[in-house]
Amino acid sequence: MAMAMAMSRSNAGRGIRLMSTSGWWKAVEPAPKDPILGVTEAFLADTDPNKVNVGVGAYRDDQGKPVVLQSVREAERRILGKENMEYLPMGGSVKMVEESIKLAYGENADVLKDKRVAAVQALSGTGACRLFAEFQKRFRPESQIYIPVPTWANHHNIWRDANVPQRTFHYYHPETRGLDFASLMDDVKNAPNGSFFLLHACAHNPTGVDPTEEQWKEISYQFKVKNHYPFFDMAYQGFASGDTDRDAKAIRIFLEDGHQIACAQSFAKNMGLYGQRVGCLSVICDDAKQAVAVKSQLQQIARPMYSNPPVHGALLVYSILSDPDLKALWHKEVKVMADRIIGMREALRGNLENLGSPLSWNHVTDQIGMFCYSGMTPEQVDRLTSEFHIYLTRNGRISMAGVTTGNVEYLANAIHEVTKSSEKELKAGAV
Ligand SMILES: Cc1ncc(COP(=O)(O)O)c(C=O)c1O
Questions:
Q1: Whole domain around residue 410: which residue ranges?
Q2: Whole-prediction pTM value?
């Protein structure tokens, strides 16, 4: 009897195991391809010798090769074999974070002297944005975020996954290929008082269009009137003008006006530390006591996600920013990168004009930073790819960092070819 019961128990057990070994993820469909990273995949699969990748926002030298800065190599040499690999605190490297916020707010900023800045190391710019979005949801659960049109596509994913409702505000004017300042200001005025706004501190991605200093002042003034909250995403400090202070101008204007801002910083682009995932999130508070509380809550959000951030990139950033010589070298190298991009903008525009294109290409040189929002249609981009093996996102965004003296003529010719039909429309007065 006992034996029979034991047998039936084990059969039943076996049956249950058989039923539950498969089918768990039946409902999972392949995720849509990331529009930016998908471009690189397609580029890599292309065997054409003339292929060009102007899709991804990563700096390349004039030979089209990835760059490791000399300042980074020197920092690597200095830390090699000298540091242990212990965990960092939840908020990351305190030394690195101190240097990082000096870079954003200015060495002598009052908010730093008053210890009013709650700041933590973050997983590059993306991680800093995500931490802030989670913080916003947790402590202002009723709030929304106003995002410019267009923006870096991942902003939408980040605030969506943090369950913060999104609204948009006007930013880019397709006809002038510049800033739609009047509509932007209307949206700022019409948003409910105390709204959260996402602002690109410089080198707006994807448009390369930044407000002028005067326009930033007006935006800051209107934010005060409306008591809006400015969240700055600063992924390209130094990359726009070659000068890190100049590129932080918008932030400094808001500081002077007494705003309590938050800022996401990335060292991916300006130090070329893409894969190291090093950045910083800072939140300006009323006083030092509040800054301690806010920092502790940011750490609480980080703890169940990744516990603490990686150490190597933080050591590199700290080594560079804390040493006057290395920092000076880095500043020079940032300028070289920015100047190469500015030079390629001139070359691309010059080539297009020499080809006799009657379209205006002024925006190629008016826009700033890594990207040129060319104004090409998705169909024209498709032709660039299928006929000329040139890869970019379908919104017509050209990563100027991928343009070189070797490919700029080829690129200009191809753009001229695919925009010829727009030229006909232009002559007929339709554009
Ligand atoms: C506007 C903007 N914010 C943030 C990022 C984040 O980059 P990362 O996470 O590599 O620092 C990027 C990168 O392309 C960007 O363009």
A1: 37-68+337-421
A2: 0.92
